[in-house]
User: Fold Probable branched-chain-amino-acid aminotransferase from Thermohalobaculum xanthum.
Amino acid sequence: MHDWSKGAAIIRGEIVPIAEARIGVTDWGMTRSDITYDVAPVLEGAFFRLPDYLARFAASRAALRLSIPEDDAAIRATLHAIVARAGLRNAYVAMVASRGAPAVPGSRDPRDCVNHFYAWCVPYLRVISAEVEARGARIWIARQTHRIPEDSINPRVKNYHWGDFTQALFEAYDHGADTAVLTDHAGNIAEGPGFNVFCVSGGRLITPRGHCLEGITRQTVLDAAAEAGVAAEVRDIPLAEFLDADEVFTATTAGGPVPVVRVDDRILGNGAPGPVSEMLRERYWQMTRRAALRDPVVYA
Ligand code: PLP
Assistant:
């Protein structure tokens, strides 16, 4: 019997249990990371801000000159179908466009590749575990690895170029941290493996301008801050300023905002999540329940 509860995928138009989902070894998505993706959440039975995720996915495909037959309406219908098939009320839902394999065997010309779309969903997951979230995350600012330069790989296009993140994670673990944050080559804060970052200084909320994905969660946090009357800035954050911040937190689809209680060896707020971070985290989860931002899944 298939175990749909672990997730479902659609590949070449067929819905299969997640454990059976496969792509070919000659696919340039595999051999060259020539691929883009996006991940939307299903929370308590509905997609949250799905049009925003679909728009970002379309922009990423355009930036990489990836062309798939499916339009936004078809992608939306497919995502709904796999989540309904898996019966997941809380899910991490990935949509992927890959360069594919060349139709002309052995060709090195990307124009010969047959681009294709697939999607998959698994039970909702968190980039930072619930246990770490409860006590507050410890982050390490990577010194040996920087985020890949924007003019090499555009970080606003969600991508599988995670070599820098992975090396930074090992460096973080070596220093007893839960996860890493990377800087750009000029020493400004960029992002972490799967999340954006915020800091709070003198009551102002600040998040990096460049060298990062323009996160949907980041946007929701900025919206929540605007509603709460918290002044926010999207701009470069030099490392020294970040290290001096009153509060720090991370933000991602896979877990929402998560407070940070240690940066490098420095303890923030006596080791407890800061008040602005906590207020915005609470408002974030309230916003995920707003009907206008939800697209309910119809389960069989
Ligand atoms: N930065 C990176 C590198 C990511 O992979 C992610 C994804 O989850 C984020 C930031 C946060 O973006 P979002 O809030 O849209 O999930």
About this structure: The domain at 130-287 is CATH 3.20.10.10 (D-amino Acid Aminotransferase; Chain A, domain 2). The chain has a mean pLDDT of 97.
